[in-house]
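MODEL INPUT / OUTPUT PAIR
PAIR INDEX: 1
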Amino acid sequence: MTITPQAELWLASTSPYRQQLLQKTGLPFQVAAPDIDETPWVGEAPEALVQRLALAKASKVASSLNHGLVIGSDQVAVFNGDILGKPHTAERAIAQLQAFSGNTVTFLTGLALFDAATGQSQLCCEPFKVHFRQLTPDEIAGYVTLEQPLDCAGSFKSEGLGISLFEKLEGADPNALVGLPLIRLLEMLRQHGINPLL
């Protein structure tokens, strides 16, 4: 399908994972870095945080456009009520996975679609649960060495060897776990007359 100039699609993210997911739709899009402060507010709930940041990313990119639809997304992992960041070091990744062994981690992905022409937006939070199997220290060390998941919240890449860490996955859209809930996004886009099937 061809998108009219009034409905150009932008992804407010430099994440290669989100770009790869959006490419699955076959829709043409452009990428822009939103450059916003992602610091959580004091006492901010994880669900509120990811939705606020998704909207902030989309609206920041949209502020420099006259028209177009801008996709913003943000994700956190929550374990025992705490928001988990990216590990950045192998030691922290190992510590996270040791804590997750035999437990469940909830991933919350905020998704925003911002219309630059009207200033209107759609917003949601998509949950996804990862149930980890009992992991041995050697398995954890081996995984971190093999896949180096240091830039991933939760210390794994579900689209790669991370799948070997799980007992089961629970959620409406497996793409949400990677960082962009495509089912909800396509639903939002259809409300703007954009459908990759037509």
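PAIR INDEX: 2
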Amino acid sequence: MFDVILAILAASVPPGDGTDGLAVQAPTKQPTQTALTAEPQEATGRFTTALEVKPILAATQANWIHVREFDGQDLLYVTHLWSWRCGLAQIKLSVNGAAPEVWPLPDCHLEEGFPNMIQEEDGLPYRGYPLDSIQQVSVEVTYDDLTVEQLTVGRNGQPLQ
């Protein structure tokens, strides 16, 4: 039930940031590439490990990304992945076959009751692209146990492979 509540909360995050409906592109600053290390896998009931989030993401692959046309552009959302980020080490996305790009994940809010909650200071879980330019997106999810799952989806979010 907790996972359903988090999914509903994540889906209800509005796309804007209060700038009169204008889309704002998330920062594209590339993080310094560091070696990923596996984290301990203990079920906490807080959905903060791969052990806990992997089954949820496996069952909801069609929700990993979303493309929305808004204000003359395509917005590529990763809200669903951000909503389960505490069990992730990294996400990479490739649009239309381009080189994969690491999309920074906000920190988990372990001091909060809902550590995966997206807060205002986390930034925006989307980026803008030219209208109708996104045809497919390849997603590579690295869980915090360092297992990797890949998926390629069409513009509508449905898996192509």
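PAIR 2 NOTE: The beta strands are 66-70, 73-77, 88-95, 101-103, 126-130, 136-143, 148-154.
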